[in-house]
Write a structure and sequence with these properties.
It is a single chain. By secondary structure, this protein is of the alpha/beta class. It has a single domain, classed as Spore Coat Polysaccharide Biosynthesis Protein SpsA, Chain A. Helix content is 38%, strand content 13%. It has a six-stranded mixed beta sheet. A two-stranded antiparallel ribbon has the order 4-8. It is globular and about 50 Å long. The relative contact order is 0.16. The mean pLDDT is 90.
Length: 255
């Protein structure tokens, strides 16, 4: 059977929705539909998963500090498959109407965070890496079907054997686990360009970048959505303008 690209998203409680009621509405009415439109445009398979199978397949929700973090971790259960390359996309990602087709997928592809944040420094220190070592964001992951299954097995093994992050409790989460997988399997990782996971609210990100995938990551990303809702024009129009590089954003500590 011919390999196809399959886009997977999770819409399971707060672990995969992020933010407050306003953000949830934006996710459901603007962001997720933009991903569906993109999949339809390029004839990719698409699945949004709304029911958790964590306890059925792994056990109690007692591995991470917060119950919601188990639902976020569940992305690694849902990328297992036989016939598709997988593109996992967080629900706080907007896909531009002018986005290019998915690039050729080789290995496991993810974009690094544009700048080094404090929790990146503590992670790098714990793993005896330099401050400038790349820290990959798990909000967009593109992977071949073979490595999707391998990554899934790795994550399942960590849960079943209660293998927490050696970097400490702060890093006991799905994003740090992905980075630790990359440290253990460096030949598997290939870096995605910033245009495939543009996080404009993070320090070090490019200004006015015309991107494919726009990621409203973290608290600052959700604050940006609220600010955009107060600008002239519709919220969707303003989100689209950022993706097209037409709105200049000023980040913290920048003037």
């Amino acid at each position: 059977m011919k390999l196809v690209n399959k886009i997977v998203q999770l819409d399971i409680n707060d672990g995969s929705l992020f933010g407050d009621g306003f953000t949830h509405d934006v996710i459901k009415n603007i962001l997720i539909p933009s991903v569906v439109d993109y999949a339809n445009k390029y004839k990719y398979d698409y699945e949004i998963i709304r029911k958790s199978v964590f306890t059925e397949y792994l056990g109690p929700l007692d591995f991470f500090k917060k119950k919601s973090e188990h639902y976020s971790f569940e992305r690694y259960l849902r990328i297992r498959n036989q016939f598709s390359n997988v593109i996992y996309i967080d629900t706080d990602v907007y896909i531009s109407k002018t986005a290019s087709p998915i690039p050729e997928i080789t290995g496991i592809m993810a974009a690094k965070a544009p700048g080094i944040l404090n929790h990146h420094k503590s992670f790098n220190k714990a793993h005896k890496l330099g401050d400038g070592a790349p820290h990959f964001n798990a909000g967009v992951i593109m992977t071949t079907n073979h490595l999707a299954n391998e990554l899934s097995e790795y994550m399942i093994n960590r849960y079943l054997n209660r293998i927490q992050s050696p970097a400490g409790e702060r890093h006991n989460n799905d994003n740090s686990f992905l980075n630790e997988y990359f440290l253990e399997n460096p030949d598997s990782v290939n870096m995605l360009d910033e245009e495939w996971n543009y996080m404009p609210t993070l320090p070090g990100s490019k200004k006015e970048l015309k991107c494919n995938f726009l990621h409203f990551v973290g608290i600052d990303g959700k604050r940006l959505l609220k600010k955009l809702s107060h600008l002239r024009g519709s919220l969707e129009e303003n989100i689209s303008k950022i993706a097209e590089g037409k709105i200049l954003l000023t980040r913290k500590n920048e003037h």
